[in-house]
Write a structure and sequence with these properties.
single chain; 446 residues; binds uracil
């Protein structure tokens, strides 16, 4: 087989065989296929799409590019009964702006007795990544070996790591490439990326948070639902319990976006505070994880258990334990001001009075990247301190000169571009919006 023939085949809307897909994925993972050929093939997939058979082959080739972990011996017991439950669970989001739910949910669910082996990603396109956020905590290591991953799960029931040379290595390489070649927003590529790393984790249940709206990769609800169905089907075919919540990303989640700022806000929620939209979504996603892991028998009980983990302080203690075991400085858990802080702040003020009716949320995510909080090229280093602080939510009244957003920045050279993006991201009108979008639009696969 020749790579160039396979690129031409997909360019001309042909259908690949399983062998062709395995040839491409294995060759790229081993370093035998160069970035430029893989980039061309990914762009052809982006433009032409994939059939279900191709997608299955792609997901499996990426999954088996590394080891598939087995943690069944770590399955937890239902408290008070001694009964073993299918409590190896995880959640994954398709990505958005200010979406820091993993940092909050993982400790809540582990504190509630389930086991959470979480393999996450870095920032992708305009969206932030859990690994970049965690690395804003001084010393935090996301690159644990398989042995360290297992030991962490045995000891505290949770670890958050990245794809490695051993686990989902194909996704590790393809993810970085997609980020800088404009091929993120493809349902097939997102499905294979997410499901290959999630299926490699050895979990039994998976909750997917599929974002829709101006800050999501799937802007239209029907595209988000299509992606959700693809992922739910893929997971179920592999014998997992999977549900997908289609959730709103038409405005940022919470009040802060940017790596260290999002860690700070996560700690606020774990301490019982934080913005209500973020807290509500975390309780909902955690409740589904408790339900899939058979820790509770209905969603209401799941929500109550998640809330109890926060109120009792057990979720925050669990977060502290996770930070410590992954080498991070636990001082930040009690004093988030010890996280990296930007040297400068400037407000973006409203030029008109009225109501905030919508945000161009993707633009706010791009502003974070421009400030240095994300990557424009593969080799870019992240500035953990920069980001945005949002003062208004859709539906809020706004006065002339009132701050809509505060930009936290370090490099003056990056400010103008970021400020323009923020200024033009807010739509103010004389009348309030007729309908406010709900946080959870629907659930697929339940
Ligand atoms: N999250 C992932 O892990 N992969 C994608 O492609 C998009 C979001």
């Amino acid at each position: 087989m020749r790579v160039v023939d396979l690129i031409r085949k997909k360019r001309d809307a042909g259908e690949h065989s399983r062998e062709e897909i395995e040839f491409l994925i294995n060759g790229y993972t081993r370093g035998e296929i160069p970035d430029y050929q893989m980039a061309a093939w990914l762009m052809a997939v982006f433009l032409r799409g994939m059939t279900k058979a191709e997608l299955t082959a792609l997901t499996e080739a990426m999954l088996y590019s590394g080891k598939v972990l087995d943690f069944t011996d770590l399955r937890p017991k239902l408290p008070g009964t001694g009964k073993t439950i299918p409590g190896l669970v995880d959640k994954h989001s398709t990505g958005g702006v200010g979406d820091k739910t993993s940092l909050i949910i993982a400790p809540i669910v582990a504190a509630g007795g389930l086991v959470v082996p979480m393999i996450s990603g870095r920032g992708l396109g305009h969206s932030g990544g859990t690994l970049d956020k965690l690395e804003a905590i001084p010393g935090f290591r996301v690159n644990l070996s398989n042995e360290e991953f297992r030991a962490a799960l045995e000891k505290c029931g949770c670890a958050l790591i990245g794809q490695t040379a051993e686990i989902a290595p194909a996704d590790k390489k393809i993810y970085v490439l997609r980020d800088v070649i404009g091929t993120v927003e493809s349902p097939s590529l997102i499905c294979a990326s997410i499901m290959s790393k999630k299926l490699a984790e050895g979990i039994e249940g998976l909750v997917l948070d599929v974002k829709t709206g101006s800050g999501a990769f799937m802007k239209k609800e029907e595209d988000a639902a299509y992606l959700a169905e693809l992922m739910v089907e893929t997971g179920k075919r592999m014998g997992k319990k999977v549900v997908a919540l289609i959730t709103d990303m038409d405005q940022p989640l919470g009040r802060l976006a940017g790596n260290a700022l999002e860690v700070k806000e996560s700690i606020e929620v774990l301490a019982g505070g934080g913005p209500s939209d973020l807290r509500e979504l975390c309780l909902e996603l955690a409740a589904w994880m408790f339900l899939l892991g058979e820790r509770v028998s209905n969603l209401e009980e799941g929500r109550a258990l998640a809330a109890e983990m926060i109120a009792s302080g057990r979720a925050r203690d669990k977060f502290r334990e996770i930070v410590r075991q992954q080498g991070g400085d636990v001082v930040v858990v009690d004093d988030p001001e010890k996280l990296p802080l930007a040297r400068n702040k400037v407000d973006v003020k409203s030029a008109s009075a009225g109501y905030l009716v919508s945000t161009q949320c993707e633009q706010l995510g791009i502003a974070c990247v421009v400030l240095g909080g994300g990557r424009e090229k593969k080799e870019d280093a992240i500035d953990p301190a920069v980001g945005l602080e949002f003062h208004k939510r859709v539906g809020d009244a706004v006065r002339v000169g009132e701050a809509l957003c505060t930009i936290h920045y370090n490099a003056d050279a990056r400010l103008d571009e970021a400020r323009k993006l923020v200024e033009t991201a807010y739509m103010i009108a004389a009348e309030p919006p007729k309908n406010l979008r709900s946080l959870v639009h629907r659930v697929i696969g339940a």
